[in-house]
User: Fold these one by one.
Assistant:
Number 1:
Amino acid sequence: MTDTRRRVKVYTLNEDRQWDDRGTGHVSSAYVERLKGMSLLVRAESDGSLLLESKINPNTAYQKQQDTLIVWSEAENYDLALSFQEKAGCDEIWEKICQVQGKDPSVDITQELIDESEEERFDDMSSPGLELPPCELSRLEEVAELVASSLPSPLRREKLSLALENEGYIRKLLELFRVCEDLENREGLHHLYDIIKGIFLLNRTALFEVMFSEECIMDVIGCLEFDPSLPQPRRHREFLTTTARFKEVIPISDPELRQKIHQTYRVQYIQDMVLPTPSVFEENMLSTLHSFIFFNKVEIVGMLQDDEKFLTELFAQLTDEATDDDKRHELVNFLKEFCAFSQTLQPQNRDAFFKTLSNMGILPALEVILGMDDVQVRGAATDIFSYLVEYNPSMVREFVMQESQQNDDDILLINLIIEHMICDTDPELGGAVQLMGLLRTLVDPENMLATANKTEKTEFLSFFYKHCMHVLSAPLLANTTEEKPSKALQTSHCVFVLSDDFQTCQLLALIVELLTFCVEHHTYHIKNYIINKDILRRVLVLTASQHAFLALCALRFMRKIIGLKDEFYNRYIMRNFLFEPVVKAFLNNGSRYNLINSAVIEMFEYVRVEDVKSLTAHIIENYWKALEDVDYVQTFKGLKLRYEQQRERQDNPKLDSMRSILRNHRFRRDARTLEDEEEMWFNTDEEDLEDGEAVVPPSDKMKSDEDLMDPISKFMERKKRTLLQHAGGIILMSSYYDPLFVCKMLLTLLDGGLVGLVDYPDDDEEDEDEEDADSKEESPPLSKKSKLSS
């Protein structure tokens, strides 16, 4: 069997700084004569060819990541990685590498440790600091080498950062950059590229503050244009100064805020576009850059939030009918980006942010925007609405309930959301799926508040079913009438053409899924709506759709209702014969083994297993002839058996009364005692028993409850000679020693429909004599003379 521990994928880093998959194989470590040392070998699992042969160099920095990844650099700009299938294999190879390099396998980077002695390290730390060469054009190569040599050592990185910071070295380097650019000194520009890139990898906030200042940031970007690996320099500064335009949709009066916005955009551009893709060793060296951008966004949100004049003007122009479409589009996009920035805030700051927007009237503004015809503006408004719903659904619910007291149903915010969902023009209904998720969040009782004075669940669900549910179910009701689907459903903003096309069926599936969610989480509201509007019958019409996913949605809806085991629903289903479309869909599906087949069988199996008596009788009495030939599963025959058992109990009320007596807690015995007695009954050999010997010794509890057992004893005396019919065999039991135990056995078999009760007539004189003799003593066990017949 293949050793999966050493199964690996080999990756190399290409010129675009992306990882290329070189193949899958099995890794081993061995001494290679040609390379004069221990090496890592990977042979392809397909043909055994050599995918990798790499000597473990004592000075190469190997790094272990995520328990299953080992990465290293073979040469400049040539990084390798082994991705292991199992952690054990990674650990094994990692120990080999550490053994060659003389490192502790517990480290994650083999060269992270400094190879100096403790004394030398102490002397190095106590030394005054790193001395930088003079910042001159002729010394740039020396500076670049110093920066590159300092990066592997944390201690040297720290000293280099302090030297750069204290001597104002970065500004001197940027002055040299301008000189080199004027002189077109490509060699100097290439050295400056390496130096500035290395300074980024120092991961020092104080250095970033200098580099990203207003007077330095464009020169820093200019240095990063002259990548030595590229034949021509990039034109990042040209893009930032001419192509990228900063638009103030609302004039910003605070110069500090404006400068902070410019800075954040440019630093984000450096991170995303200017800096090369970091190698696996450099990823953690840019964490401070990520933090710099993050905290800048937090500052921008806070400064805008505190500027009441700015926000007031923003919402005023958003809702002003005189605002032209282009301007409104810019305003909505700004507000959307503003809300996206807020996701970086801490929870308490985010609470204050959304509370400010709520006080400024963001929900009434969104209501106005969603009523407009511009699709792009409505899309941006939907994104803003999703931020609000995810943050605080209770705030949105409170607003829509308050506006219902003043406005008509057609212009309610939640109804606008439903209509946009219905009218989504995207063939894949991407917007409708997003809006359906928002509606689901709003009607979810799990996130509704309950206080001593009011219950949000009761109030909002009453509002929703009164003012909104008819809008949500309108496409379903219109598409499942008996008339031909040539009519159109007219809403205030679109015409919904009814048909069985893919887009329409997708929409109906979304609506049915939301109704299914309501059945599961709402109680009497959805029950009253389904029964009064005959919703289940309408939904089951969809089982005839040519699209299987829609038919399955309809089946899931009915299955969820049946799963509640609510007799109101059951009577509604039986009264309207709602199993008929389910049976038709099952029969039309034929012998195909697919999801529809499985869903229908599972539904009937649930009715059988849970013994839903009313539905069992309804199904057998009305649909047995259609289903009796289905024999590749035992579900329908099992349903018929359940039905016959019910009829038998109805015809024999004495047995039913005996069941009720035995189920009464007053006659229950210890479960363990019953199990022990049953074990004794079936393990006892008849030949070992003597007359008068009891098979099961009476328990203390039975002795104390002797008076309570009198009704059963009398009943069993009348049935002293009883047949147990099981799988075609009849076992005659001549007497009983523990009536409760025997009744328990009898009823267990009765439940399975495998036993019937009959009186057994006397066969010969000998049996009668034995019975007379035995009646004077305690009842004996089964004797060899008991009759066995088939």
Number 2:
Amino acid sequence: MAKPVDKLHLLVFIILSIIVSAPHSNQLQLFQYQTLVRIQQLLNYPSVSSSFNTTTVTDFCNIEPTPSLTLVCYEDNLTQLHIAGDNNNNINGGLAHNFSTDTFFSTLGSLSSLKVLSLVSLGLWGPLPGSIAHSSSLEILNLSSNYLSGSIPVQISSLRNLQTLILDDNKFTGAVPSELSLLQVLSVLSLKNNSLSGFLPVSLTGLQSLRVVSLSANHLSGEIPDLRNLKNLRVFDVQDNYFGPRFPRLHKKMVTLVLRNNRFQFGINPDELRSYNQLQKLDISLNRFVGPFIPSLLSLPSITYLDIHGNKLTGLLLQNMSCNPQLAFVDLSSNLLTGYLPSCLQVEAKTRLVLYSKNCLSNEEQEQHPSNFCQNEALAVKVLPHKQKNKSSYASSVVGGTVGGIAVVGAVLLVVKKVYNKNNNKVETTSTRFILENVSTINTVKLLSDARYISETMKMGASLPAYRTFTVDELKEATDCFDSSSFMCDASHGQIYKGKLTDGTLVAIRSLKMSKKSSPHMYTYHIELISKLRHTNLVSALGHCLDFSLDDPSISIIYLIFEYAPNETLRSSISGPGYKLTWVQRIAAAIAIVKGVQFLHTGIVPGVFSNNLKITDVLLDENFHVKINSYNLPLLAEARGKGSAEVSSPAKKTSVLARTEQDDKSDVYDIGIILIEIIVGRPITSENVVVLVKDLLQVNIGTDEARKSIVDPAVMNECSDESLKRMMELCLRCLSNEPKDRPSVEDTLWNLQFATQIQGLKENNQEAL
């Protein structure tokens, strides 16, 4: 039998010596002494040594606390008992061979005033008995690092004052008791490193006081219940289980979220995460997540730790993506990411570790796969044995037009099933299997390579010159003293000139007349905002210049210098007389537009909303780069329609700077109008036409034949049925009359990327045939 822990022996000796010498006049104290003696006997510690010099201390409540023993009393009542043993205890920890947990916890139950009980690393073994319910006054129960086994007793739910329950590092089996929902003041539930199995009970959703849930290293499985109503939940750790397949729904005030090494799959809805403003740690590594990586995770307001490694996340990383400066750990390894590592992650910092190996990035400091690896893996699917219930449920998800993982998989299931049927129903060994997991929702590198879209966009974004202040002389030289030959137009936001800098760069110069009632320093805030408008899908700002009017000294002139963009619009490339964009190029253009809008909303602070997007303001160059030429700058808005304007203070909330759902979703509505033209291939010139075409889409969305009847004949034969259906569904959602019913910008981007993926599956299978 294992020897008792020497350190603990000494502590128990002290208790017993005090008990021997203590006065027994107080009946309550005497009872508590006797209870402690009984606990000593059950823990099988030796009797007091005759050579031990007893102290004169008679009050055990005044024993100095140590890391191994702490006793706390209140008005002579023992309220807290903490005993911590050696972490290297053997399985029996020195306990008697006939040790009974029932007797032991029944004895503890006689301490009626005990509120905190912590018995850690004592080698306690056997089942946790129902007699634990006798300790009805307990508020904190910590039995971690023992050898307790069997099921967690339902009687524990009788401890109605329990606020903290910690049963970590034991050998508990069975399910998490649904009766725990009766512990209405429970704040901490930690059951990690046991052998618990089964589902997480839905009844836990009623524990409104929960702040910490730690269930890691068990055998729990199934869907995690919807926990969004747990408004106090801050830590949710279910690492090393079998939960899945859907990303859990949690309240937006999460601080720590650990889903590592489970069976989560499908895509991640960006709306689920972008509102997590308090999230500091996110670990979704070693799962089966697919679909686009969400760049905004890097710039969440409180994020310091991000681990997504070991999934199948796809997407294009750009150097100008934003990061939270407090981000200390980032692991993007072993995914299917392409492009360039964001510059903010390449800055050397002693306090930051960034891992990104085994992707297909152009940064080669860490091992990367060749680009075709990510292309092939993104299109690869894993098949599972066919089950009839899966077939019906996934099909119904697609019919319902549901956005999310099930709809994604269902749509691909139908596409692949149809392609196989075209081959005279002759299917290889996978004839009785359906696609259920590992479906990537984007593979833009392959699908857009014909238009050279991605590589050229990356180069263009990286080659923008630094934002700077120009002199008036530079602008005069660029425009030949603002000669009429350089004049382009007199827009609502000021006159626009075309100029050529000394290095040959073509620029567009916007001249704004502003009132001098406010000093030029008041413009600084707006200029700073404009300086941040640098994105591959925006006509980006290159600099500014401040001057004054010779005709009217009360007027200041601000020159804003932007990239010069060609005049080939997206409309002319769809419905014009020349070359018409293919279906894939049209979706690529829509993706670029949404990425530009996404940057305007979230890439700068404050965001730029209500941009009055028009397809005629979407420009394309000879390499099919898409750039939004007009957006809602605060400075332009204040000068719009006026000969002069007064710049407001940055502290003043204007309709331009204040973000509301209406602002956010108004741009989504404009995107919907652009999608109409992309689909039908005809100019949409009024709101009445929008209503008519919207009704037409709703009527014809039901069948493949009907959908083909309204799509642009130029792309009718090349677009897949499911890709067209996805585009039409998204268009209708964007055009919803109620802003709250419209998708978010991130959701819109996600669906467009998925439409591209479906189209790619068709082309890939046609090549295989």
Number 3:
Amino acid sequence: MFATVLLLLVALCAQGGHGEEKREEAQRPGHVTVVIVGGTGDLAKKYLWRGFFELYVNKVKGGNTFSFYGGGLSPADKGKPALFEILKALSCSKDVSQERCALLKEQFLRLTQYRELKTLENYQKLAKDIEQDLKQEGMTEAGRLFYLSVPAFAYADIADKINSSCRPTSGAWLRVVLEKPFGHDFRSAQVLASQLGGSLKDEEMYRIDHYLGKQVVAKILPFRKENKKFLDPIWNKHHIERVEIVLKETLDAKGRIAFYDQYGVIRDVLQNHLTEVMTLLSMKLPKNLSNSEEVLNNKLQIFRSLLPVGKKQAVVGQYQAYKTEVQQELNKTKDHVSITPTFAAVLAYIDDAQYEGIPILMISGKMLDERVGYARIVFKNDIFCVQNHNSVHCKPKQIVFYFGHGSLQYPAVLVSKNLFKPVLKDAEWKEVTEHKDVNVLGLPISDYYVHTPKEQREAYSELISHIFAGRKNSFISTENLLASWGLWTPLLSSLATSFPRIYPGGAENGDLLDICVKGKEISYNSEVVIISNDQMGGTSAKGFQVMQGKFRGTDMVSAWSEELVNRLAEDLQEAAEAAVRENGVFHLALSGGSSPLALFHRLALHHFSFPWRETHVWMVDERCVPPSEAESNFNTLHDHLLQHVRIPYYNIHPMPVQLNQRLCVEEDRGALLYENEIRALVNGSSFHFVLLGVGYDSHTASLFPGSKWDEHGEKLVVMTESPAKPHQRMSLTFSAINQARRVAVLVMGKGKHELVTQLSRVKDNSDKWPVTGVKPASGTLVWYIDYDALLG
């Protein structure tokens, strides 16, 4: 097979009449084996086979010989046809003639095989076949390249198989390419690095970040060096106003939810792509840009100089449809809530004399208004134009590394004409002098000097050529990786329980995601505007305001979930402060379920002046499980609220479902004990504030349909039966709830829309629709319903 291909190569070279190419062919540097593990997956289909075919086309002239293997878990009868379909779709670049491309593609297909790579025996068989082919064809081996296009959890096992059975001999090189994610946080990255280090040397590992293969990203350091005489005087805190590194996407996360919900936008984009760009912009210029060790050391110096990034240096969001996508793809129930962010803006500062005080913004998100990526350095402008405000001197001064897409549609480096005319030394780049009528980040394109690559190349193809050449300065070393996770892990930990701001997606986001930088902190710029239903004109909630109206004849507050929770938290604090002023104490009863979690986080993280020392917290209902178990309402309340606030332990009143080392046994009289405690401590048994939720069957507290609730008379606490496990519950009765001064019913999520519609039409019937039995005798009832539940 190899001999046939070599004859074809010689024939191709002869067709071109290049005697020099013939000599190179005779002086082959050796044979290279390429193995793509996961060779029929999406990444391989979209990018990898195209990149390796391009490498093959380019190296034909250099006389290299190749064999390619697509490895997968499927047996050959399934994997081989799938691989062949991928290879059939390959094409050449424009500069390769149609005839030549057809011949090269035919060769490539002949050189490519599918292999089942599941067991150690599979890898041993692969190694044996490689050795046998080399021997039969009398070829010298140059090296072996394994590209692991598989989930990260499989890396260590595959690396071990490669190490034990597939290492080349006779001085040939081994290169193993790893795709992100490289861990989930610092500790997991450290563990993965240690596992891989047991099988592979650091110089054999190529951790790929495809952003480093983008032509404009790869141009950052050369641009800085080529324009050193212009940039040295202004690349500092005295002249730079801010740095923005932005990657916006219009797509959602559909099809990737299983991965995305574990990682989110910070791990998926900011920790790697945007962080790498940030280091390239800010690191000390290496004397030799090709020296990977010097580049790495300069990057590490930046990581050491970065100030810690905490909760006050970040805002997060989540597009509205994400919750439903998670429920569908992960087969979750309708009340499942994910707080994984799909949008994030993070503020960083470098603590050194050159960059001190310069805000560095890293921003990325899905379902935004456009697809675009760029890094922008905005310079201070000390010129004020008294009359001619359109003068070039008064326009923004900025350098933009434009990664692609957006209004410009092609990668470019742009320099404001009021800064300097950049040097163009690279023969592979050109200056653009004829422009379309477009604006880029506030300036017409004609106000920039524009440099762009003469030929646009795909990032994976670029990096594959670097791997083949053994160039490591476009890849992530172990030290670099751990330094990056060291920066991001504390922030991720602090955001673990933060609820993201919900945004609708696309152009409808408006100014909802606009951010404000104040000192060393960042926040959303938009405030919630309180307006009434009349002011809304009875229209939809498109403006994202808080809407006040009526539901079932009582007051209703409605908004998008984040604003609704903020409003409820404010109302709750107002009620608490009023009760403390009047009585010196505030009695609050809280229900279980997932709906109150966002409220708990809001209270813990934003309402620092809440009068917790004067507050008594009671339970509306409880499952008959030990309080240490995750299903316990008290456990949830403790983990998400109580442990984060300064409330005296004797002010906390869990329901006594576990007495005498047993659960909810009638003779232990737990319900009566709790009722007596209420009567003893709560004046007139009248709670100041009761927070309820509503289940899909309209149950509230643990009062379920089908029971005769009026038979409980004046009892305040009873044992009930739930149709779902755990069946036994303890609950406040309608008598206890309806004696409260204020009752809030919180309803959130699209899954509750049908229920809200039904409740708006039915008459009071607490046996069939238990929540309709909530009718405070002398207090007030307010429904808090988010737009998802209200409008569907």
Number 4:
Amino acid sequence: MLLAGESGEAPVTPCCSENGDQKKNLKEKSDINIAALVKNEQVCEGTDNSDLPSCVSAFIEKEVGNDLKSLKKLDKLIEQMTESKMQLEEQVLTVSSEIPKRIHSALKKAEESKQFLNQFLEKETHLFSSINSHLLTAQPWMEDLGAMINQIEEIERHLAYLKWISQIEELSDNIQQYLMTNNVPEAASTLVSMAELDIKLQESSCTHLLGFMRATVKFWHKILKDKLTSDFEEILAQLHWPFITPPQSQTVGISRPASAPEIYSNLETLFCQLLKLQTSDELFTEPKQLPEKYSLPASPSVILPIQIMLTPLQKRFRYHFRGNRQTNVISKPEWYLAQVLLWIGNHTQFLDEKIQPILDKVGSLVNARLEFSRGLMMLILEKLAADIPCLLYDDSLFCHLVDEVLLFERELHSVHGYPSTFANCMHILSEETCFQRWLTVERKFALQKMDSMLSSEAAWISQYKDITDVDEMKVPDCAETFMTLLLVITDRYKNLPTASRKLQFLELQKDLVDDFRIRLTQVMKEETRASLGFRYCAILNAVNYISTVLADWADNVFFLQLQQAALEVFAENNTLSKLQLGQLASMESSVFDDMINLLERLKHDMLTRQVDHVFREVKDAAKLYKKERWLSLPSQSEQAVMSLSSSACPLLLTLRDRLLQLEQQLCFSLFKVFWQMLVEKLDIYIYQEIILANHFNEGGAAQLHFDMTRNLFPLFSHYCKRPENYFKHVKEACILLNLNVGSALLLRDVLQSASGQPPATAALNEVGIYKLAQQDVEILLNLRTNWP
């Protein structure tokens, strides 16, 4: 067999020096060897050991085959097989020698780890027994030491307790000594220190100590407060406080008494001393709070000296506006609201000039005037909270109360600078029951107002009809009154404290706009037969005015803020699509978009109806003009002067009259849209029904051109500079019909030879044709009869 050669001697290779040819032969031999191995592997793939002879036979058959010349390859094949065998043996020997070494090394490391683990376990056992022995020995000592530590800690607590008592008694003794020597400022300062200690002790669980501390502070606070309050009230009495009359008639300030400097010095001293009692006063005096349903903003108590200054005014207020007094009339809220405004105005100068400098001097951030106003505001809030439930279901009384409260709020904020962040009357009106009633009453009275404004005799007449500069929009009285109503509603609710309440009022406004639009639509339908009449045009002006104003309001900062608030609400409730939310967020749409779209649709429908009406009249007037004998009209050279076709007169007169009529009745923007819509239809009509329906000789074409350019187009020259640009079809048709014969022939040849190509477009543009398509131009050229 051929395989016997494997055990024989390898072929002897010639001995020669290493050169380029040898390297090349070695490389080729290596490639052949690799290829043979690959082929052998492919042939024998998928066979087991029992098929080895057949695999070898198949390999030899493939390499040698039936060709005897292929036997020359045997030497090379034997050499390749020998080299492969040697490589495989080396790999087997290498692997068989390395594996035992690795296994031995792993076993050795495992043995060492086991020994270390045993050593650690022995040490752990010994250490565990030592610790247990030590704990048993130290247990009595630990018990004795723990008991001693507990005793020490208890003694320390007792000592700290006694120190606190000693400190409290020391401060109390100091206050007593200061009062005995009439050193009130130091006594007040010491009381401040005591009150601060009281605040620090609030986290302690020593209830008796806390009680003792609080009782001591309260004792000295009452003594100092009573003494200082008495002295302060005496000084205020010397200043004729409170000031019931306006500042101009007050005696103090006009004729200053000789003792005024001393009085103001004492006022400053007592004010500062009372200010020191503020900390301790807040421990015992809880500020008056209205029920949580009113959602008043959190605010600190009014400072103590201002409270004392407010006391006589509070007494007066309660005397006059509570109980069975004649001044306490539920239908006259303006009485107590005006009284509070009067008191604020009367005392503003004194507070700014005398009290504020004292606060600034001690480094306080309190504004005396606002603090005084805040104290009086609480009287108003309490009064409103008590009165509103009594008149909630009397529409006239409730509406009157709301009106007076809004006037009061406006003056309070604008004149006296009262911040909207402070508690105010709008918080009372925002209470759920009261607010819903307010919305209901607002809607009711708005609808009643809408009924009256639409039924008025002057509903559709503009208030400024005789003033040209003012009456550009030609707004009927009902539309202007309605938008004024919406504006007033906005002013009424824009100072509400929460965005959710404002959004509810915004929905009311949108409902009113929609209701007014429906009413206008109903009136418009009654006037449909007279679509050019005065009332129909007034309705159209009204719709346009409301839409324009709402579009302007959409850019107002107030409504943009409401849009942002609405965006947050919609995002929380998932009531809008992502596209709508994106449009709101990017300011592409506004809170009034729905209403504006409906109004714009109504406006377009009404304008379309007017355009159709005028267009029908124009078509009726153009019947004779359509039947004009364009084929037999004399040429321009045969006429001395070109004149308007007699059959065109009814058309132009009708057009002129309607344009003048609607120009006077519609506002400028509406009329502009109207005549442009009309011109668009008129251009198509003349082009299709008159020009394309006839043939023209030279005279007919010239007459058409004269009628259009010298009579029809100038009708619109008052409304734009180049009216012919709105009659593109007619203008270009006249150009084509009036081209001289040579130019017309040349143009027709170009169109026929370059159909749809750029040269055709260039030729059309050269003669002034831009709108008409090439096919239309060819049709128009064929309408000419003056071909040679």
